[in-house]
Amino acid sequence: MVELLLILAAAAAAAAALAGLGYLLVWFLLHGRRDGPGWEKLEGFRYAHRGLHGPGVPENSLAAFRRAAEAGYGAELDVHLTRDGRLVVIHDGDLERMCGVPGRVAEKTAEELAALRLAGSEEHIPLLEEVLPLFAGRAPLVVELKTDRHGAAALARDTVDCLDRFSIDYCVESFDPRPLRWLRRHRPSVLRGQLSQNFHRHPSGQGPWNRLALTNLFYNAFTRPDFVAYRFGDREKPAVRLCRKFGMRMAYWTLRSRADVALAEQEGALPIFEEPDRPKEVTH
């Protein structure tokens, strides 16, 4: 009986040790930087997803960003590099959905893109430097880096260099861990965030490894983000719940009701919202 008790005690101790090691491994994989500067400047704002767009006001247009800034909101926007190395604000890598023409943003010059119109309106694809003055001295920006056929380093470097020319508080995020890794090494003063969602439900063209790694935030081990920006409907994934438990800062996208915005704010996350049921109150 004594021998059996000793064996059971040894087994329990081994199980506890393994559980502890597993917890440390998960903590190492998922935790980010705790002291990233300037987060307090982003809190208290709501962020209009691709600007405050709606009927007759296309997403990621100057009109949408002007509406957001004038309403007191921050904005989330998407940045691509053009063939001639300019920074333009558009979500898709191809031009079909928003401009009705074939081709990819990365294959066009800024001049060629400026001649196109967004969603049948008079609005053009704006340069990042056209958008930023609208928010200078007003509200912060959440800037998503869209890597395509250009280097991630060039996109990250040029974007933060451009942002720093204006009096704007901002953070930078990306699904692609490569620009975040570059920022960690070369611009640690910039708040960086790992974007993700449940890629098993929303594959978005990702291969099996990326679906697994992005869904479970494995790249956090290399990017050490200041925050995680996760799809709101997927936020109960175990990796996201663990991040919250570890004290990771959060942003949620895309919120489409006042109730969801209120819940995001209750959980301490930056709320990235979209029409049609946009919140009426500004909290800052």
From TrEMBL:
Pfam families to which the protein is assigned, alphabetical: GDPD (PF03009)
Q: Which residues form the GP-PDE domain?
A: 44-284
Q: A GO molecular function for this record?
A: phosphoric diester hydrolase activity
Q: Which InterPro entries match?
A: GP_PDE_dom, PLC-like_Pdiesterase_TIM-brl
What's an example Gene Ontology biological process for this entry? lipid metabolic process
> From which domain of life does this come?
Bacteria
> What protein am I looking at?
Glycerophosphodiester phosphodiesterase
Q: Tell me the organism.
A: Dysosmobacter welbionis
